[in-house]
Specification:
Largest sheet: 40 strands, mixed
Shape: globular
Number of helices: 6
Distance between the termini: 68 Å
Number of strands: 77
Structural class: mainly beta
Length: about 1000
Amino acid sequence: MRITSIKLFLIGLLCYVGYMPSYAVDLKSVYTQKPDDPEAFYFTPENYHIKADGKTDVSKALQTAINQVKKERNFGILFIPEGKYKISKTIYIPGAIRLIGYGKKRPEFILAKNSPGFQEEVPDDKGKARYMFWFTGGLVEEGKPVRDANPSTFYSALSNIDLRIEDGNPYAVALRTHYAQHSFINHVCIHIGKGKAGLFDIGNELENVAFYGGDYGIYTTKASPGWQVMMVDSYFEGQRIAALRCQESGLAMVNLQAKNIPTVFEIDPNYADRLFLENSSFENVSGPAIIVSNENNSNNQITLRNVACRNVPVLAQYRRSGKETTIEHRMYTINSYDHGLQLDNLTATPEYRTTSDIVPIRQMPAPIVRDIPELPDMATWVNVRDLGAKGDGVTDDTHAIQTAIDTYDHIYVPQGWYRVTETIKMRPTTRLIGLHPFGTQFMLAESTPSFSGFGAPKPLLESSEGGNNQLNGIGINTGGYNYRAVGLKWMGGESSYINDVKFVGGHGNMGRPDPVTGELPQWRPSPRRISSPSSPVTAQGMDLAWDNQYWSLWITNQGGGTFKDIWTASTYATSGLYVNNTSTPGRIYAMSLEHHVRNEARFKDVSNWKVYAMQTEEESRESTDCQPIELDRCKNMRLADIYMFRVIRVNEPYHNSIRLWDCENVEFLNIHNYSQIKYTTDIAVYDINKDIEVRPWEFQRLLVTGKETRRPSLDNNANKVRQLASGFEFTEGIARDSKGNIYFCENRMRRIYKWSVETNSLSLVADFPWKPSNLAFDTEDNLLVLFAYEPQPGYLINGKPEEMPIMNDSQGTSFSGYGNSNHTMRVYAIDPDRPEETIRLLPRVPMGSVKNVHKALYPANRWRDFHDFNEVTVRVPEMCFVAPDGKTIIPHCFDLARSSALLEAYPGKPFYASDEYDRRMIKADVANDGTLSNLRYFVEYGEFGSAVDKEGNLYVADGQIYIFDKEGKQIGMIEVPERPSTIQFGGKDLNTLFITSRSKLFSVRIK
């Protein structure tokens, strides 16, 4: 990109005389006008009797203003107008408070010359320094110790404000930022001068930040609460010791430029670090660019990709061995540099290596101006409140917001909670801009009608398809009970952008101060009691609404773009992130996925994506069985600086952190899999189809080639039981489509799987919030899913709760007792290749109203412990479900609720079913309307599943699998390594018996 002399001059003015123009950062003001926000505070002379002249000390007034926001709002924004502001002491910024500058030029805070306390090292301080701005865990009270920002410090920020340390402050540091999610330093130029550093203790993310001078630009310990940190578009120049001094920082960096320094990265002695750097440049580095400690340790993971260098003779120095990686070229590009534990493929032996691909170049590449898309010019913003939106959490703002979007391109959404009742749809040019993702929310009230009950996924907010949409600084709140809700459905193009978006629910919630006392909300432990038989102490903390909605963030239909600083931790959602059906390039920069019941992040049929600084966390109550990351049929992806964590309260192990299904060319870099307790996950990466385990918990590089072979390989020998897949909780509901593919499900984990006979591999079809119990197919290969539907609490239809039909056969089985009678069985149909787009509920019609029944589907097994099995089995139900083909029916009976499979009853052919309680198989006739008659006992075996082969022989699962001919004579037995549950013939010639069991899928070729 060509930079004109005028632009260079303007950049030089903004950077001030003596500094070279920087290209990785943009130093102009982002917010050029005053944002009109009725809930914000403004640091103006009118409000605080200050002068922005750079001479008047505003320290006291600034602290008063910040504290006022905290005391009166608990979370919010203090806007700083353009000007120069002198301070002389540390300013404390408590959690969830943001300082945002505005004006044609950024406001600048200046630490005055020789400010008291900044001349000497502070021995009892963690950073041995004093700070201009210190982000804290709460209000700082006079005479009490400062509580540093911590893992519970969210939503704090300083943005569009420049900082300057004047001479005479050698132990001054501009910022201390040990905060957590949705906290950041963005659009800041820090002139450290003769001070110590620009920033101590990084947290969460930084964007568009420049550091000039100082001993260090950044020096840091482990981030809070041990997560990695994302830094995009950064510039370092003129540091006296190193641009960054670090230990366990976990920095993922894109578009970093460093020049005129001794060292870029200095890792502290006896510490490891995980550093990932891409699309960056080093110039005039006199010493080693990277100083590595703890070489050849799995915690040490140093990865560089596409880094251009000029006058950098020593790329790396290794403290322990004293070795160096030297480069003879004056100018060169580091295509790759890898240091740490590496695996060339899934089956490779892990090895410690230092490898590089470095090529000389004749000239430095053109600098990247910014990696992150810019917000639109503020002059084009339209305030949604000026267009009628109230943001009071009560008024329905749907019409006002949608009308604004339909009329204008760039919508500013001030702080407020905007209740909506229908999907908000963005046009291709729509950009929605907020500045505080908890203070500004689009929200659903509980049981909003159009998002309630059964139905297809329905997003609160939906992007255009392929558009240039942006969503910034807005929280998405789908409430607790809204069964159909998706927080955000994103289909934007490669240039679209989501930033600073919180999916509200679960952790990270905040309240307002008490309106009477003014006290801030705070957690207080309950008095500890001692349990006794007469007064037991029970566990607390389970929310009955967990896992009742669809996904929080759903990226689909060729959606892509940049996704930065996203926190998706709503336990009410199926998962925090679901990406499917896209090859549009996508980039995730800093995403926190936490506290889901079954899945944190799932990628299916995704290619050309980069996922950097993504972190998962599983809590003890909700996430013991949660799969952190799942990749299904993905290719050409890179995942770097991935942290997977199970909290200290977890008391059960889990099998794996990353589960793969038929992936190829997927590169993992800088993987951190850990917990403070011994119950971390057993396996870092597991390929379910190839049964390959990658056991190192920490490694620098793993390439999934897709060419690895299954261990052990599958043979096709007749009468040999083969294990196809494992790792399930309880598999059942087996069914077959017309091609011989096999489908089955897990009820509690709400997953539906497919075994492809074409590829001999397993895939995850769906993980909807509905609990599947049985599967079947109609004649058109629509997958029919039987599931238990519980009425949505609070959802009213015509002013009344949903009515559940009373089943007249619920008597006669003790299963209908307490806990099993508050739901009804329903059936939905999907196209297995497009489940999300095709889900629809089957109609329920009177039995006998369907003419020309092709087949009826009945429970494979019934538990009738009042001994009325014979009567109930042939009783004709009042209603039945009708499949999309119009000729497949499922008679609606209570026993569907407990059955483990559906068996096909064809008119004119014998039908077999299990009397599970009396442990026998019966045989019945099937009439043209699909009803059963002429029941007779067949064999004295019977449990969950059974199947009939092409010769009419009956296979019965009862501990093992017993084979009977048409007369009921036993002709064989199949021993299965694990107790079988349901069975079905499949394969291309229907001669292979597939077997679900407690935790595994098996098959055996019969002939």
